Amino acid sequence: MSETCIQLKSVSKMYGNTKVISDLNLSVKKGERLILLGPSGCGKSTTLRMIAGLETVSSGDLMIDGHRMNDVPAGKRHISMVFQDYALYPHMTIEKNIAYGLMVNKVNKEEVARRVDQVLSILNLKGLERRYPRDLSGGQRQRVALARSIAKQSTIFLLDEPLSNLDAQMRVSARNELLKIHETYHQTFVYVTHDQMEAMTLGHRIALMRDGQLQMLATPYQIYHRPANVFVAKFIGTPATNIVHIHLDGDHFHFQNHSLTAGKEWLPLIAANGSNEFLLGIRPEHMQLSKINKPGALSGTVKRVEEYGSRTGVIFNFEESEMIAISDSRNWRNGERIYFTFNQKAMYLFDKDTEKTIGFVD
Amino acid sequence: MSETCIQLKSVSKMYGNTKVISDLNLSVKKGERLILLGPSGCGKSTTLRMIAGLETVSSGDLMIDGHRMNDVPAGKRHISMVFQDYALYPHMTIEKNIAYGLMVNKVNKEEVARRVDQVLSILNLKGLERRYPRDLSGGQRQRVALARSIAKQSTIFLLDEPLSNLDAQMRVSARNELLKIHETYHQTFVYVTHDQMEAMTLGHRIALMRDGQLQMLATPYQIYHRPANVFVAKFIGTPATNIVHIHLDGDHFHFQNHSLTAGKEWLPLIAANGSNEFLLGIRPEHMQLSKINKPGALSGTVKRVEEYGSRTGVIFNFEESEMIAISDSRNWRNGERIYFTFNQKAMYLFDKDTEKTIGFVD
Amino acid sequence: MSVISKKWISYLFILPSLVIFAVFLIWPGIYTVYLSFLDWNLISPTKRFVGLQNYLSLFQDPTLYKILMNTFVYIVILLVINCFMPYLLAFVLEFVIVRGKKLYKKILFLPSIISLVVGSMLYVWILNPVSGPIAIIFKKIGIDLPTWSSTSGLVLVVLSLITSWKVFGYNFIVLLAGVSNIPSGVIEAAKLDNIPLHRIFFQIVLPMSSATGIYVLIMTIVQGLQYIFTPINVVTQGGPNYASSNMIYHAYQQAFVLYKTGQSAALSTLTLLLFTILLFLEFRFVERKVYYAGK
Amino acid sequence: MPENKMEWRRIIWHLVLIVFVLVALFPIVFAVSNSFKGLSESYNSILQLIPAHPTIENYKTIFTSLPLYQIIINTFTVATVVTLFKLVTSYLAAYAFSFSHFFGDKLLYFLFIATIFVPFTVTMIPNYLIISRIGLLNNIYGVILPQLCDATGIFLLTQTMRTIPKSLIEVSRLDGVKTVGILRDIVFPLTRPAVISIGIMFFINSWNEYVWPTLILKDRANFTLPLILQMFISSEGGTNFPIAMAISMVTMFIPLVLYLFFQKYILNTFSQSGIK
Amino acid sequence: TSGNQSGSGETHKTVIEYWHVNAQTQGGQAVDELVKDFNAKSKDVKVVAKYNPDMYKGLMQNLQAEKAAGKSPALVQVGWAYLDYFSNNFSYLDPNDAIAKFDPKNKSFLKENFLPNVLHLAQNKKGQVGIPYSLSSPVLYLNKDLLKKAGLNENGPSSWQEVRQFADTIKKKTGNYGLYVQEPADTWAQQALMLSNGAQIITKKGKAVFASKEGIEAYQLYQDMVVKDKSALHLPWDQGVDAFVKGKVGMLYTTIAQMSNVKAGAQFKVSTIPSPPFEGKEAKVPAGGSFLAITAQSEDQQKAAWEFEKYLYSRQSMAKWTEATGYVPPRKDVAQAKDGLKDYIAENPMLKAALDQMDKAVPWTSFPGNSGLQAEQIMIDSRDKILGGSGSVSKTLKDAQQQINQLEK
Ligand SMILES: Nc1ncnc2c1ncn2[C@@H]1O[C@H](COP(=O)(O)OP(=O)(O)OP(=O)(O)O)[C@@H](O)[C@H]1O
Ligand SMILES: Nc1ncnc2c1ncn2[C@@H]1O[C@H](COP(=O)(O)OP(=O)(O)OP(=O)(O)O)[C@@H](O)[C@H]1O
Ligand SMILES: [Mg+2]
Ligand SMILES: [Mg+2]
């Protein structure tokens, strides 16, 4: 899995005068599942489509298996793609949908039949061969789209939000389907989503993008625990990471009215950073709430309590900002004064100006 | 909040010969936020539309404030409704969109202006008055739709998946907006969604439906912790509740190969049930995993590990079925043998045939 | 849910159209059938009932077969120029050229707002095989244009071309809309599968926009045959020796040039019958296979 | 290189399209050009698109020798009355078909649409007789009368109305808006672009109408523009081509202006006519 | 000129309709002027002129319709081809009767002013149907430049056989066509051809006999030029004339009414010669154009119609008519008279060819009976067949003749 399969070298994409992808460097290893994640409009689809050859590359190099592909037409790249709306041929039966591309590309008849049969059984589509896409449910259509791509037996598999049209229950099972396929064929997956749950559970690595720029490229664990900047910290995790402005004075973090002794382990990192103004990030699940004041605790007022089922979200006002903490107890009332602490090892510190992390201590 | 505002008495709805709502009994209290939740096609919208008067009631009685409303036309019910697609008039400015309904109903001019101004500022829409819906973002449109409904000042507010066209980030803030509005005006909300997170955080009570039938009507806490049947247990909570077939023999629960001493507290309930065949429900977050066998532990093989950020999902094979547990540790490897235990107080038992709960012990 | 709360209002809304259709379309249709059993010259006070005589002489006249054949040839030519060509160009514009769609649309639609009488006359001059501008240019490179207006066969083609000048643009924008409605993903999927363009056109675009295609097809046949009336009347009056006449023009000629009302009515009835069969065939065999977007 | 191949393909198709554009435009340019030539010049410098001795004599001639103002007024009257009536009748019918269910609605709609398939020769003789019986022969109202309704209008407007989201209607219902209010405040404003462009198309078609007026109108003073043109074609004294061109220009003028002003609406509405 | 008096006089003026077919480029303007002048002069008649599109056929159609509506105009132009059809289907007033009734002083008006062969044109078995009005005569127009270029005699051919040679030479020497014979929706010019070879079109009893040896011979020559030599053009009328005016054809055989058009457009030396005969035969020219017939039904209308008709036949009106249209005046004395056409002819020598052959004018064959129109259509169809080169001339003509004779009368 160490061989590079797809590589983008300083790739940019312009639409007219607007740059929607700038200077993207990305390499995907053979057999890897890479996730492109990011908010709507950040350029995920555009990146994927450049790899597929459906959009031209404005500048930079796109390499596949070591060959420059910028000018190779889509049809010659031997890439499979699953579209968000599945892009099934509505006028062909399921069988035909799968077989069509193969037949046109002169795969011989028995081979086509064999492959169709195989993917139909892998994806549990037996019995639906003669139906038309319109007669299938969303989940079935999605499976047909997968089947069609698999039958092509290409080593690169691009997926553009393939599950976003499914409802919550179906998404979970479709996710498992995808993993099963990958286990069987070990293609290189490049998978676009804006659902972080999907990204975390499916990806070997996640490329988090924003406004056409790569924010972070790392494993799900790192993305979650080692966010490179404020954006990453806020984007990943629900409820979102609390971000508060602090500044360091001596060995104390100062909030507006509160202050806190800075953990010793942070001091070298802080010193290395130069500036003393920071953005502090704390995940809701890393905070401990209490009704009793303890030394080193900060205090706020409960604004609202949200029921999540097994746990509870407590939204409270801390100084001028609103924070959220997750608690196992349901015993919080609106307006009540609460005290919270957090493990400084699990917190994040970002430089106020660059919004980049200054490092981690745990 | 105890006065009844909307009441459905044995309401059914037929489309031709198919019954899409059967014998629905439901009452909504004044000022309550009731959520209609359920999978796609279960009849949520139909129920809402019957309340609004956009669909006729095939049989049963629909009461509002104690009056039978079956034959009162929609325009006379004084109900506000927010549609999934917002249903803004594309040819009217934002201002006009809000004012139109009021003017038609002969509210005097100053009053209209006052209300428009008020809702615009409440929903942060100042400055957009003269724009047309097409010039707004999804989130803004959604706010305009809310504003329009609020301006009507009706006491009943129906919302049909008002947030489903927004992306994850916007949904969270829109949810807070809705709560703010409710805090201000205390309308009776009937809110349709198929997103359980939304349902849990927004609803005073949730009506969970399936195939036109009410499955459970209770508070979010009860829906989560006291599921009335297998469907409710599986539908609420992610990852979904594990369901395994067991049967009782003496004081032991028997799985296929494993067995377990039944908690004493369960025995009376089991006895009351008659049958000895059950479906056991355990939530993934209520299971403890271990690498070491302990007395009373069951064992399985890890199939896959999912990264959720702060926690980890462990999918493992237990006998013939697949189960999932949530663990704080990330230290699990595929294929590894594991042992799990669970607190019998937190588990659910459902009668095998009726799939109904036999009761709770904690 | 109906917006119109009372049913009688719906009927009231439909009434004006219904009355006009009844008086000027349905009754005349029936009356034409009635006339086809009579011998009458439009003014004489006596109408003579002749039974099927008009139909018999219609079928005995070799001209009928010539005109049927012409009608068929017109249909084929019109289909090629006004249905297939715009289809192909719409496809090319949408998926190959991509740019300049708006401009081409604007210009190509332009002739469809111009009177066909004007167009016919213009083309008579432009295409004058001896002294028109085209002929002169061709002459310079040593090619003599055939005298199309008096050459059977060729005259059908040229009259169809003149009609196409007017009809093409409308069909083009309709088909372009139909083709643009195909989800781009499907075409991209095909491109990724290395499907050649001509296959994309015939095997994907054509079937997927067939609802629009059928509409244009039917309109081309039904409207085209009526449109072509004007150039026939302006340019050849059906000549030479009926080589450019079609069923519509011939019915007109019989009625208003030769005053043979019965013959004309019989021919019209026959035309109506043919159109009905066409419509029926369309419903029976094509409609079922048509793919409707969004269903 | 494959990119180049693609480029080449594009260029070739552009060329094909340009040929179509030329075919579409040439007659119009030719007409403009010749309408400003004298008879002799039009005969003898055919290939010269810009007249060497431009003259407006032809226009003068037609305006002085023909009751052209009267004819334009006739054409305008016919086109306007026909358009207004067609719009009103089609709009009402389309509204009923789109927004209500009543007994026989599907069948009636089908019948209405099927009338598009009736060739005009089928109704030609009886309608001629009707018009002559009620004494409207040689009268523009005889031209107008049978054309007060149009199945394509019903079809296109029904198509358009059906695209109005149901929820818009429902919201106004909830607000207590009545049928008339919905028609006036919601449906009409939303279909206005379609109404405008369908109206313009009705107008242009009626303006250009040729066959039926030839049967009905006898007297020059009652003529419409397309008939005037026929007066200059192939008559015994020879055709005066430049004058015919000047008349063509007059005939084309109004439709062209309308098209240039409303092309966006027109193209949009007619683009949708094939999509069921 | 009509001035103020007409305002008060208008009320008791008899208003009559005059139906004509003269398009704007073809005398329409002159009609308007004549009518205006007449209305100004006349104390008790007001004429309203109505143009009928689509030539004589169109006028006939409209007359039908008018009759169906129970009305009729007062004076109409009837194309020669419609003589029989008109007289069989409509009621009209014999001009002799009109004169006797309303203008007994002018008893010999017709005899004095018209050549007998000209008057004969508007007669049927029962008598005079109307008075010849627009007389057009086919002449041969020559493109002298082309003839010269081909080395031919610029005075033109003297027989149809020579026409063929000329055409062939032009074709071979210059690459241009040699001849175009007009092909409108009638067979007038083709009849001239057959008549000039001594053929008869129909017998007195109305039987078609044109498929005679002479008829076939004439048509054969014509077909040979088109099909074999490819020296003659086969095109619709307007296109053919256009080609001649643009200098692409050496000779044009068409009506004298095209004179001003040809003159205005031609940038070469152009002249006309009378319609040629076949070798050893005598030329005959069927009269084209129309006669005027009184269709007024009431007496005062008839009287007014005659009054207007008399005005139209005055020398000045006739001259004006000729100048505007190129039609040959049917009256004997117009050509030489000073208040007639004397000066005009001097300026337009092309007209002379037509005037010179007036004595050769014969009626344009009008097929009798109700199917006359259809007979004419059959003639047109066979012309197209022959010139299209399909089938032999004799078979086509014989078939046509038989068909015509079988039509119900
Ligand atoms: N054809 C185009 N012309 C101009 N801009 C475009 C075009 N296609 C996309 N864009 C712009 O490029 C940016 C990136 O688009 P892209 O579709 O890649 O986003 P995305 O990350 O896939 O978003 P989503 O999650 O909504 O699918 C967006 O701002 C979009 O508006
Ligand atoms: N007009 C109708 N005619 C026939 N069946 C209908 C109609 N409207 C809805 N149904 C059916 O009634 C059932 C309930 O529909 P409804 O729209 O209420 O579901 P829903 O719970 O709102 O689903 P979703 O979450 O997809 O909006 C569905 O099975 C649907 O197919
Ligand atoms: Mg995207
Ligand atoms: Mg719904």
TrEMBL record, chains A, B:
Coiled coil: none annotated. The keyword Transport applies. Residues 6-236 form the ABC transporter domain. Keywords: ATP-binding, Nucleotide-binding, Transport. It comes from the Bacteria. GO terms for molecular function: ATP binding. It holds the Pfam family ABC_tran. PANTHER family: MALTODEXTRIN IMPORT ATP-BINDING PROTEIN MSMX (PTHR43875), OSMOPROTECTIVE COMPOUNDS UPTAKE ATP-BINDING PROTEIN GGTA (PTHR43875:SF1). This is ABC transporter ATP-binding protein.
UniProtKB/TrEMBL annotation, chain C:
Keywords: Cell membrane, Membrane, Transmembrane, Transmembrane helix, Transport. Residues 68-282 form the ABC transmembrane type-1 domain. It is a multi-pass membrane protein. It is found in: Cell membrane. Gene3D superfamilies: MetI-like. The chain crosses the membrane at residues 12-34, 72-96, 108-126, 154-179, 200-222, 265-286. Belongs to the binding-protein-dependent transport system permease family. This is Carbohydrate ABC transporter permease.
UniProtKB/TrEMBL annotation, chain D:
Keywords: Cell membrane, Membrane, Transmembrane, Transmembrane helix, Transport. InterPro entries: MetI-like, MetI-like_sf. Residues 72-262 form the ABC transmembrane type-1 domain. It comes from the Bacteria. It is a multi-pass membrane protein. It is found in: Cell membrane. Its main location: membrane. The chain crosses the membrane at residues 12-32, 71-95, 107-128, 140-161, 241-262. Belongs to the binding-protein-dependent transport system permease family. This is Carbohydrate ABC transporter permease. It comes from Sporolactobacillus shoreicorticis. The lineage of its organism: Bacteria, Bacillati, Bacillota, Bacilli, Bacillales.
